[in-house]
Amino acid sequence: MALPVVALVGRPNVGKSTIFNRIISQRLSIVEDTPGVTRDRIYAHGEWIGQEFSIIDTGGITMDDQTLNKEITSQAEIAIEEADVVVMIVDARVGVTTEDELVAKILYQSHKPIVLAANKADNLEQRQDIYDFYTLGLGQ
Ligand SMILES: Nc1nc2c(ncn2[C@@H]2O[C@H](COP(=O)(O)OP(=O)(O)O)[C@@H](O)[C@H]2O)c(=O)[nH]1
Ligand SMILES: [Mg+2]
After folding, report:
1. Residue pLDDT, tens place only, 81-118
2. What does 30-70 look like in DSSP terms, one character per residue?
3. Nearest CA to ligand 1 atom 19
4. pLDDT digits over 8-29, tens only?
5. What is the pTM of this model?
6. For residue 19, which atom of ligand 1 is closest to its CA?
């Protein structure tokens, strides 16, 4: 039987590739301070508490109108299409951005199950700010 497919989606620089590499325990995807480094979709086999799945890392969805960004956006849309569940990643330190709102809108229209993950909440103080993300309308 085919494994369930999990796609990591979000605007650039929120930590998608970091989470991807952590889950698959390999440095397969490039982690960078510069936004937009993961240009393609990257597929791998993942396992978490005994559950196996395929996992897709994507380039970030962004509102910028440049060709590359359009390419990244369509890559993410393909990943969403292929996914059984989408993990939307946001940056707890930055808070809600217009790009996050765009991503949330695209995901909402996909009718796929979505898990919202607030990354970079490195300390308790930053963790308290995650409730702002309720405004994305994706639930908990
Ligand atoms: N402080 C902090 N930085 C993180 C965390 N996760 C990722 N980063 C950093 O955020 C930057 C972007 O990460 P990356 O995985 O390339 O993001 P992507 O563009 O969404 O794939 C890198 O400098 C990472 O080291 C985290 O939990 N806390
Ligand atoms: Mg990346």
Report:
1. 899 999 999 999 999 998 899 889 888 888 899 999 99
2. PP-SSTT---S-EEEEEEETTEEEEEEE-PPP----SHHHH
3. 13
4. 999 889 999 999 999 998 787 7
5. 0.89
6. 15
Angle at 53 between CA 51 and CA 58, to 5 degrees: 135
In this structure, how many other beta carbons lie within 10 angstroms of the beta carbon of residue 28? Answer: 13
Residue 128 DSSP class: G
Q: Which two tokens stand for residue 74?
A: 């369509």
CA distance 105 to 95: 17
Neighbours of ion ligand 2 (CB under 5 A): 16-17, 38
Task: Please enumerate in sequence order all residues whose Cβ is within 8 A of that of 3, keeping only pairs 6 or more positions apart, or say none.
Answer: 45, 52, 53, 54
Q: Give, for ligand 1, the residue of 13, 22, 23, 75 to mutate: max count of ligand atoms closer than 8 Å to Cβ.
A: 13
Handedness of CA 37, 67, 97, 59 (dihedral sign): negative
What is the average pLDDT value for the chain, to the nearest integer? 86
CB of 38 closer than 6 angstroms to any ligand 1 atom: yes
